[in-house]
Specification:
Structural class: alpha+beta
Number of helices: 4
Radius of gyration: 32 Å
Shape: elongated
Largest sheet: 3 strands, antiparallel
Strand order of the largest sheet: 1-2-3
Oligomer: single chain
Distance between the termini: 105 Å
Number of strands: 6
C-alpha cells in the first residue's frame, strides 16, 4: 500500500467517524477536568481530553489537527483555536518574559497549512536595543572628546606627561 492509498483510507475513516462517531466523550477527562471533547487526528487515539490536557499533550507537536466533539459530531480544528502558543528561543515550559508575539503565523508542511501563535524571544531584541544605546553613548562621548581636544582644554593621554606634548617645553 502506497502513501496515497493509505491517506485515502484514512480520509474515508475520518469521514465516517464524523458522520457516525463511534466514541463519545466521557463526562470527565483522565485528569479529572471537565469537558473532554477534544481529540487529535494525528495521534491516532480514540481518547478524548479536556482543553488543558490537549494543550499540554501537544506542546511539542503544535501542527497536529484537533477534532472537537459538538452536537453529536466531530468538527475539525486546530491548536491555535484552543490557545496553544509556540515559544521560540526558550526551552519548554519556560516562557520569555520579554516575548514578541505573532498571532497570525502560518506554517506549511506536507499536511497543509497550519495557523499558529508564535512567541519570539524578546531578550535578543532587548539586547540589540541595549547595544544600540551603548553605541549611541559611545558616539556622543567621542563627539565630546573631539570637542574637548579641539579647544585644548583636556588631553587624554598616558599617565606620565611629556614635555612639549602634554605641557609647554620649559627649559630649567
Amino acid at each position: 500500500m502506497n502513501r496515497e492509498q493509505r491517506n485515502q483510507i484514512l480520509q474515508r475513516i475520518r469521514k465516517l467517524e464524523k458522520e457516525f462517531p463511534v466514541l463519545e466523550p466521557d463526562v470527565a477527562c483522565n485528569c479529572g477536568g471537565p469537558d473532554p471533547i477534544y481529540r487529535c487526528e494525528q495521534c491516532f487515539t480514540p481518547v478524548f481530553m479536556c482543553k488543558q490536557c490537549t494543550l499540554d499533550w501537544h506542546r511539542l507537536t503544535p501542527l497536529h489537527r484537533i477534532e472537537t466533539f459538538k452536537d453529536g459530531r466531530l468538527h475539525s480544528g486546530n491548536l491555535k483555536a484552543l490557545g496553544l502558543r509556540v515559544q521560540l528561543g526558550h526551552p519548554l515550559p519556560e516562557a520569555c518574559p520579554l516575548r514578541i508575539s505573532d498571532d497570525n503565523f502560518v506554517i506549511i508542511d506536507a499536511q497543509g497549512a497550519h495557523e499558529v501563535m508564535l512567541d519570539y524571544c524578546g531578550e535578543a531584541a532587548f539586547r540589540q536595543w541595549r547595544i544600540l544605546q551603548h553605541l549611541k553613548m559611545l558616539k556622543l562621548r567621542d563627539a565630546m572628546l573631539d570637542r574637548i581636544h579641539a579647544n585644548n582644554v583636556v588631553s587624554f593621554g598616558p599617565a606620565c606627561v611629556e614635555p612639549g606634548k602634554d605641557m609647554p617645553d620649559i627649559e630649567a
